[in-house]
Structure prediction request, 272 residues.
Amino acid sequence: MSDSKKEDVLTYMQFYPNLDIPIYVSFSLESFSPELFELLLKNGFVKIEEKEVLKLPETLKNNRFARILKITEASLNIAKKIDYFREDDKFGAETVTPKKGYSIYRFRGIGIMIYSFGSKQWELGCFSDFGSQEIEAANVVINRFVSWALAGLGTIGFWGVPVDNGIVVMNQADSKGEVVYVDIFNNMVFSVDGMKKIKSNFRIIRLDATLKNRNIMLRPSELLSFLIVNCTYFDYYGLSVPVRQVIRKMSSSIPGILHPKESFRPRTDLGL
Prediction:
């Protein structure tokens, strides 16, 4: 997505390498502001050394779940498409357009990503200030990539924040682009705060502005609908069957709680 002729030195980062998750990004530090590196760090990516970079082609070839996103500065043609107002933009800043064999994700004013579940290498074209301006939008774009890449591993993202004994799931705007990822098969949650195990007292929390001084248990069907609406997986055709199956398992095995919004404090013990 770039018209640059020179060969840039690329920086490679891996998503939670301590968990051996085969999801990577690459970009040129010369093309972007240092804030992009910091934004990726905050979203769980860690820079990998040259010896690991050399292993990447083999990993991408042999691991069917491996994905790498190449972040490049948009060419003039792509930049025009990023900024251009389309009729479907009135429904929201994000769109996914299916093509034959691939899809085009666009966050108006931010970037365009070309991806295919049949391909290991995806590409994001964006402006050079990506990661330093419109931080919430940049967080959303990065987490869309991660969510699509993780879906095959049975790990699902939700807009929200962690608390001591669970996660608070909310809509995208309220979360400011922050995401918690749930790996139901390995009983694990990870977020910008790191990783923690899902224990017996783990709860999925929904905030309610009308509720006062008490909590209410959510029925599994209510929790299921709530999780589907606030899942970070985003597609023209809706949630994939595997994603729906994981969310259904979550709603039947993890208690859901309705909690007063006025008493919520992020990253604290809610006393549930």
